[in-house]
């Protein structure tokens, strides 16, 4: 078992390998993390782990508010995640490699990172200025018939795009615009389809690529059928993900 210890960045979203993650970092615990990452030479990877929050708050309250105006705000690296942060996070996350860490005049940071490798969360340490975690790197097993499944998922994904955007066939992306490597396809589709965090998390922690693709095929067919029957659904930009407040 290959393990690694990395800074931990919890989010209300799921990061997949190969996907870009923009971050607006303003909380002190995450500023401290970025200052530490900047100590790594530019020619080396500036890595941290991203995990989706199961039970907790991405941004810790910084002042008393509703419903209790007398409540004392939580402080420290584990603020908002309870007495045992390990229980507040989903078990499987993704390593992020920060290509850009830019400090602003007010001390906040603009960060652009890319997901690289899936990891399993083994333990969380809250004794420092920011959370760190012991992580087990997870291999990407292709599984059975991943190639054929990827082709089916791409066809279903194009139909999903067409229904969602109300586009004509000639305006859709062609096969040359989309990847054909099964694992890449599985992560791209997982990130692009409109799903909630638990559904995305299930795709991230699928045991192999083929299993993920099979689940995506079911999801795409179901969502396309729903959209077909509800033509008034608003279109969504599939290429743009939300920017975290942190």
Automatic annotation (TrEMBL):
This is ATP-dependent protease. GO terms for molecular function: peptidase activity. PANTHER family: ATP-DEPENDENT PROTEASE LA (LON) DOMAIN PROTEIN. Residues 6-224 form the Lon N-terminal domain. The keyword Protease applies. Pfam families: LON_substr_bdg (PF02190). It comes from Streptomyces triticiradicis. The keyword Magnesium does not apply. SMART domains: LON. SUPFAM superfamilies: PUA domain-like. GO terms for biological process: proteolysis. Keywords: Hydrolase, Protease. It comes from the Bacteria.
């Amino acid at each position: 078992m290959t393990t690694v210890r990395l800074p931990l960045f919890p989010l209300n979203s799921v990061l997949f390998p190969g996907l870009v993650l923009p971050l607006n970092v303003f909380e002190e615990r995450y500023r401290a993390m970025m200052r530490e990452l900047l100590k790594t030479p530019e020619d080396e990877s500036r890595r941290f782990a991203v995990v989706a929050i199961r039970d907790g708050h991405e941004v810790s309250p910084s002042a008393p508010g509703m419903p209790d105006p007398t409540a004392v705000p939580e402080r420290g690296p584990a603020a908002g995640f309870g007495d045992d942060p390990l229980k507040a996070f989903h078990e499987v996350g993704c390593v992020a490699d920060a290509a850009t860490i830019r400090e602003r005049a007010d001390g906040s940071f603009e960060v652009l990172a890319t997901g690289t490798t899936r990891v399993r969360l083994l333990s969380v340490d809250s004794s420092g200025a920011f959370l760190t975690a012991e992580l087990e790197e997870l291999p990407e097993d292709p599984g059975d018939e991943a190639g054929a499944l990827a082709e089916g998922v791409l066809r279903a994904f194009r139909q999903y795009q067409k229904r969602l955007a109300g586009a004509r066939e000639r305006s859709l992306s062609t096969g040359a615009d989309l990847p054909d490597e099964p694992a890449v396809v599985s992560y791209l589709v997982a990130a692009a389809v409109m799903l909630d965090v638990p559904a995305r998390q299930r795709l991230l922690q699928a045991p192999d690529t083929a299993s993920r693709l099979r689940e995506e095929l079911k999801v795409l067919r179901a969502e396309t059928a729903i959209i077909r029957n509800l033509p008034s659904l608003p279109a969504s930009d599939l290429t743009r993900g939300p920017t975290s407040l942190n």
